[in-house]
Amino acid sequence: MRKNLSVAEFYSCHSKYLPDNIRKEVGHFNVFKVSDMQSRCSSFGRKEFYTIILVKGRCKYHYAEQTVTVEDNTLVFCTPDVPYELEPVTMKKSGMLCIFTADFFSRYGGIQLQEYPVFSAGAQSFYKLTPARQQEVVRIFHKMFAEISTDYLYKYDVLRNCVLDLVHEASKLQPEVSLLQHSNAAARIAAMFTELLERQFPVASLSQQIALRTPGDFAEALSIHVNHLNKALKEITGKTTSALIAERIIQEARLLLKRTQWNVSEIANCLGFEELPHFIHFFRKNVQMTPAAYRK
Q: Any idea where the HTH araC/xylS-type domain is (predicted)?
């Protein structure tokens, strides 16, 4: 699988120059009009930076193992953890986007981007804007364009606020999920479980193998009884520990089958299956077809 696209590689694909602030600032941020960008280098894959895109026109959004069609005035949030590609369907080349690294927020109040719903693992990543939200999102992007061209000493603080404004505009469009209805202990266990699970992905080389595959593995890593883990996850997510683990392994298996040339046995080994038949049975049970059939 291809290594993650770096910020420097992004500029070599889409722009004629590498901005000075890519070297001078802590982290990196920039904002673009889609019409000003070169169209090459739009291949599917992970990037080493976050992207927020205001889609104009119609395009196919390929992410992880899924594909959806997005229309005018859709806000798309892309993270370094999930491979993606936006494939234009119409000739209309407009819209706006900004890119930024995790380090861009590293000295900004200890913000962890993954804590926001739009960037969390498995979260919805595209939001159809209402007319009012669309007007506000356009205003925020225009503010970014105006601010980044100034010599104001604290302009990157302003730009960080603009990014968070986009995050909040999208968050207002989804149902609020409050952890207050759950016990703090259960929410904390669920968060730690998710962090351990996601830490094993993506699988980027044949030498990589996930180590935690069963509820017992995770319970031992978290130093709690497996029944306690099951109860906490069921309370927070409504799903069993086994189901959550299986969903994530299947997501990665689908991605590797689609986007690599690795054989099924190699993929099975990377995903922690010592015997190929066990992987084939697991995949067929969850996807209703064999890995070979899915790849075709």
A: 187-296
Is pTM, for the whole model, over 0.70?
A: no
Residue 147's alpha-carbon distances to 22, 159, 260, in angstroms, are: 17, 7, 41
End position of a domain, from candidates 171, 194, 210: 171
Closest residue by Cα to residue 155 from 164, 147, 163: 147
Q: How many CB atoms lie within 10 A of CB 267?
A: 23
Q: Give me the half-sphere count of Cα atoms (radius 13 Å) on the Cβ side of residue 61.
A: 23
With b meaning 16 or more CB within 10 Å and e meaning fewer, what string describes 225-254? ebeebeebbbbbbeeebeebbbebbbbbbb
* CA pair distance 51, 58, nearest whole angstrom: 18
Give the C-alpha separation, 143 to 194, whole Å: 35
Residues with Cβ within 8 Å of residue 90, at least 6 apart in sequence? 57, 58, 59
In a domain, residue 254? The reply is yes
- Residue 176 within a domain: no
Torsional class of 238: left (φ above 0), alpha (ψ -120 to 50), beta (otherwise): left
At 156, list the tokens.
């990157």
Let me know if residue 34 belongs to a domain: yes
Whether residue 92 sits in one domain with residue 120: yes
SS3 130: coil
The model's confidence at residue 176, banded by pLDDT at 50, 70 and 90, is: very low
Structural domain including 267 reads: 184-295
pLDDT tens figures, 271-293: 999 999 999 999 999 999 999 99
